[in-house]
Every structure is written in structure tokens, then in C-alpha cells.
User: Fold Putative phosphonate transport system ATP-binding protein from Salipiger aestuarii.
Amino acid sequence: MTPLLQVKGVTKHYGARLGCGDVSLDLYPGEVMGIVGESGSGKSTLLSCLAGHLMPDAGEVIYDTRAQGPRDVLGMSEPERRMLGRTDWAFVHQNPRDGLRMGVSAGANVGERLMAVGARHYGQIREQAVDWLGRVEIAADRIDDRPRAFSGGMQQRLQIARNLVTGPRLVFMDEPTGGLDVSVQARLLDLLRGLVREMGLSAIVVTHDLAVVRLLADRLMVMKDGAVVETGLTDQVLDDPQHGYTQLLVSSVLQV
Ligand SMILES: Nc1ncnc2c1ncn2[C@@H]1O[C@H](COP(=O)(O)OP(=O)(O)OP(=O)(O)O)[C@@H](O)[C@H]1O
Assistant:
């Protein structure tokens, strides 16, 4: 099977400081990869490089596109990369405000994504928006409300609907449950897990919360000081960590 995403030797410095160094991974269709590590270990830098938000100094990111097969994402033109971001890829930010348009209604937040990929029939767009609000457990009578009127958990669910409505194959998630109450986190995780399975999504999930990867991720990558120190099946890494740093993470000695 061809990997959906192949990452080879991705390295990014900020001046003299290393963001992430020589990271490689293969992600297969339908697979969820978790990236964990304490604050400053390079998780967000890596995710930004993979999603095309940040240009690495070195390395390759190859994505198996629907239309043209494997393509080097970093070598794509900006419009090509933007199109990929609208169709095949999705990015769920930790802060819903970074992924939503706060000034327009919930329905428009979902519907405008469909319009961006060519949908024109107003009735169908609204119907799909209602359907997606339902799938993320937002009542249909909230469709005309702006996200500002929603709780943090609802905003995050709306961001997820906005991202998934176009049927992407790969979702990048940056601390998707960060900043939410524990009970809200659990519900959101359940919802995310259901959607990932139902849609057969591939995902890369960055988090410092091991409970998130335990629930969502098939495989795990542990980062420290910009480098990958351990990788493997999630249960294996968490139940039988090999690297001293992972052992500290798992035993909660480190405050991540
Ligand atoms: N814009 C920036 N300018 C300079 N240095 C940066 C910048 N962004 C990140 N860094 C540095 O790069 C390294 C990796 O940071 P990064 O934010 O990727 O880690 P992280 O694991 O995502 O941390 P957190 O969980 O706190 O977001 C750190 O040493 C950080 O200080």
C-alpha cells in the first residue's frame, strides 16, 4: 500500500534554535498518528511544516493526491497547496477562533467550505450544513447563531464540522481538546473518534495529553528537543516505553 503521506528528514530551525530535526514518518490511509512530547519539543513546528503552513529548511513531504498520485507538497505552487487545504486536507486548531469565522453564522461557517469547492445550490448547501451540525451534536435551531454565542466545546465541534464537510482524507489536529473542561474533552474525543472511524480518515494529532492519543492514535511518535526519540504502536509505547524520556512522560514525572 502506498502511504498517504511520506515525510522525509524534515528539519526546521528558528535562527540558531532547532524547531524540529530530521523527522521522517509514513502515514497510511485510515491511520491516526499521535505526536507527543513536552512543551517546546517541536510538535507544533513539525505539524506546521507537514501542513504546509511553515517551510522547512530541509526535507520532503510527499502526499498521495487523488488526482495526480504522490506529489511533493513543499514544491507545489501556493494555489495548489491552498486547494489541497480546502479539499483533501483539514486542519483543526487548538483554539476554535483560529479555525472559524467568528463574524458569520454557524451554517455559513460550514456552508462556505462547500462553496469554496464549487457547491452552488443554496438549498443543498443548507441541507448539508444542517446535517453536519447534527453530526457534531449542534441543534439545527442554532444554525443562524454566530460562533461567539457558542460554548468552547460547541465552537470546537463547529470547527470540526467546517473541516470535515468537504470530505477530506487527511486531518491535522493541534491539541484538539486543549483548553476545554475535562468532561467536555471526553465528549469531544468520543465524537472525534467516531468521525475518524466512520469516515476512514487519516490524521496526525499533536497533543501533550496522553489520554488523547490513547483514545485516538494507532501509532505514536515521541519528541524531545526537536527530535523523535521513540515511535511505535500506541499501546506498545505507552504500556512498555523503551526510551527513558518516554518512561518519564508515561509515569507523569514530566509536566507536559
Ligand atoms: N516562531 C518561533 N520563533 C523562534 N523559536 C520558535 C518559534 N516557534 C517555536 N520556536 C522554538 O522551537 C522549539 C519547538 O517549539 P514548538 O512550538 O514546535 O514545540 P511544541 O512541542 O509544539 O510546544 P508546545 O506544546 O508548547 O506548543 C522551541 O524551542 C521553541 O522555543
